[in-house]
């Protein structure tokens, strides 16, 4: 078993080192949600009225509402960033070092996912610290209760990233991923506005939001911070995590990779 | 010990291996056994199937049919069959943003080596390859020759039973290449491991090497240089390659 542990620790350590070395990535990961929190929320605060909806027991400001969505955004972008680095690794060849390790492939991919989650937890911690310093009154004390949910949502979004990385063969194609995966997932969710608000303008869009796994990830995070368990959201997140992960394992199967027309660059 | 492969196992045993890219046959009925400590050069022109064969041996591709045993363990049945394998890929596979030591530590972790043990092995290997002073330098700052040396160190850190070298001297200047060829030929004796070295450069073959010649996905020749000279009626390796290509 120690071999499994050493591999997990090694892969997590490598991802953290890469993240720390890439200072621009760290700053960008922090600035993106903070911009939404400070600039976007300031503009929408007056325009968007929020009624009392679970898990909130009183009226809340818009900034408080979008914090779980921005935490989800950090995980979403981190998952995609990990998939971008997988594509980079595939192009640079370092992916082959991972895939030729003497461990089951599903375990190696799981290690990659856990490493990505650790990086996202680091980003979320710094984001919450800054939000707290900015005087936004959020349920910061619920962070510890939210940790297992954050791990699960991180693995779900990371698995999706893995799956995308197995399909996207070149870095140049990644702009398409931004346009067709990340932005629709983020905007068609409950991250920025509650789904009932969306229903006021379009039933169809509200239904799409309702079926978007990212909405459920955000809701699971939102409830967890307030010490509540959103079972419907958790079941959907868990199901999507399993499905995305199994598909990612399948896509990294050596026999399928060849049939997908991949070269030895792996 | 139960479950441990016997020492008499071939380092690599390939039986009836076939692989196709769509309708194109890349490898056809390849049969090769390599004994522990043996130095084998896999020669063939570009496109002969050398890299495909390596990708199959290290599990990046799955064979259409046939079997591959590494130190007696089947690649199909056990992920740990890759444990006795050291690999130097044709293209660079180091992480440019990490230091030499960090790259090597990462590899040791993947191989299940404890950090203390890994550090000791890395220190010794870096000293042997005259790279101790560059241990904390990022790979990005190293020249091609040094990067290659780091990759060779990495491939031998876990004391593999067989080392795969896929055109390891490509892109190096002449002095670095000469030195590397000499070093790589010493590996079987130094580490006690077998070496399978793919190349299309005939000057990399030594008289003591066993030579495999691959062309159009088929193993055309297999033997010592003396045996091949006799069977092809040619004295030079270039002549042998020409003989195979013209057949």
Notable traits:
heterodimer, A: 266 residues, mainly alpha, 12 helices, 77% helix, 0% strand, B: 247 residues, alpha/beta, Rossmann fold, 2 domains, 6-stranded mixed sheet, 33% helix, globular
Structural notes for this entry:
The complex is a heterodimer of chains A (266) and B (247). Chain A has 12 helices and no strands. Chain A is an all-alpha fold and 266 residues long. Chain A has one domain (2-259). In chain A, helix 5 (105-133) crosses helix 11. The relative contact order of chain A is 0.14. Chain B is an alpha/beta fold and 247 residues long. Mean pLDDT of chain B is 89; it is low at 1-6. The N and C termini of chain B lie far apart (49 Å). In chain B, the strands form 2 sheets. Chain B has a 6-stranded mixed beta sheet with strand order 6-7-8-3-9-10, with helices on both faces. In chain B, strands 2-1-4-5 form a 4-stranded antiparallel beta sheet, with helices on one face. In chain B, helix 6 crosses helix 7 (237-246). Classes of the chains: A mainly alpha (266), B alpha/beta (247). The interface between A and B is large, with 35 and 38 residues.
Protein topology:
The complex is a heterodimer of chains A (266) and B (247).
Chain A: H1 2-21, H2 23-47, H3 62-92, H4 94-99, H5 105-133, H6 143-167, H7 174-187, H8 195-201, H9 203-211, H10 213-225, H11 231-251, H12 254-259
Chain B: E1 12-21, E2 24-34, E3 39-43, H1 50-57, E4 65-70, E5 73-74, E6 85-88, H2 100-110, H3 115-128, H4 144-156, E7 162-166, H5 174-191, E8 194-199, E9 210-215, E10 218-224, H6 225-232, H7 237-246
Parallel strand pairs in B: 3-8, 3-9, 6-7, 7-8
Antiparallel strand pairs in B: 1-2, 1-4, 4-5, 9-10
Helix pairs in contact in B: 2-3, 6-7
């Amino acid at each position: 078993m120690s071999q499994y542990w050493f591999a997990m620790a090694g892969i997590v350590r490598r991802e953290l080192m890469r993240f720390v070395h890439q200072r621009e990535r760290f700053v960008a990961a922090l600035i993106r949600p903070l911009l939404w929190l400070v600039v976007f929320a300031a503009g929408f605060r007056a325009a968007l009225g929020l009624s009392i909806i679970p898990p909130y027991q009183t009226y809340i400001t818009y900034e408080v509402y979008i914090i779980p969505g921005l935490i989800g955004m950090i995980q979403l972008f981190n998952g995609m960033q990990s998939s971008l680095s997988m594509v980079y690794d595939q192009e640079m060849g370092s992916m082959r070092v991972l895939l030729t390790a003497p461990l089951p492939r599903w375990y190696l991919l799981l290690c990659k996912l856990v490493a990505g989650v650790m990086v996202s937890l680091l980003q979320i911690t710094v984001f919450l610290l800054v939000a707290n310093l900015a005087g936004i009154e959020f349920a910061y004390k619920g962070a510890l209760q939210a940790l297992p949910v954050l791990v699960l949502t991180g693995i779900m979004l990371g698995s999706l990233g893995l799956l995308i990385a197995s399909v996207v063969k070149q870095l140049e194609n990644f702009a398409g991923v931004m346009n067709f995966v990340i932005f629709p997932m983020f905007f068609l969710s409950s991250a920025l506005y509650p789904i009932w608000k969306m229903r006021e303008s379009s039933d169809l869009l509200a239904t799409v939001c309702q079926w978007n796994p990212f909405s459920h990830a955000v809701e699971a995070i939102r409830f967890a911070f307030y010490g509540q368990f959103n079972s419907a959201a958790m079941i959907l997140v868990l199901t999507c995590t399993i499905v995305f992960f199994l598909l990612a394992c399948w896509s990294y199967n050596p026999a399928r990779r060849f049939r997908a027309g991949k070269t030895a660059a792996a | 010990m139960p479950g441990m492969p016997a020492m008499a196992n071939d380092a690599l045993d390939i039986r009836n291996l076939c692989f196709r890219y769509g309708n194109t046959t890349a490898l056809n009925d390849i049969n090769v056994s390599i004994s522990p400590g043996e130095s084998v050069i896999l020669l063939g022109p570009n496109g002969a199937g050398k890299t495909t064969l390596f990708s199959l041996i290290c599990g990046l591709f799955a064979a259409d049919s046939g079997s591959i045993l590494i130190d007696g363990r089947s690649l199909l049945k056990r992920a740990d069959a890759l444990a006795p394998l050291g690999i130097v890929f044709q293209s660079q596979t180091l992480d440019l943003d990490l230091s030499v030591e960090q790259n090597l530590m990462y590899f040791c972790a993947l191989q299940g080596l404890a950090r203390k043990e890994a550090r000791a092995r890395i220190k010794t290997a870096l000293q042997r390859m005259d790279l101790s002073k560059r241990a904390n330098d990022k790979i990005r700052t190293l020249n091609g020759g040094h990067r290659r040396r780091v990759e060779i160190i990495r491939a031998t850190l876990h004391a593999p039973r067989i080392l795969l070298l896929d055109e390891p001297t490509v892109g190096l200047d002449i002095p670095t290449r000469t030195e590397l060829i000499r070093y790589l030929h010493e590996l079987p004796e130094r580490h006690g491991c077998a070496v399978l070295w793919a190349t299309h450069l005939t000057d990399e073959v030594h008289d003591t090497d066993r030579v495999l010649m691959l062309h159009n996905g088929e193993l055309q020749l297999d033997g010592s240089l003396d045996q091949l000279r006799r069977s092809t009626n040619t004295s030079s390796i270039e002549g042998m390659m020409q003989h195979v290509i013209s057949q």
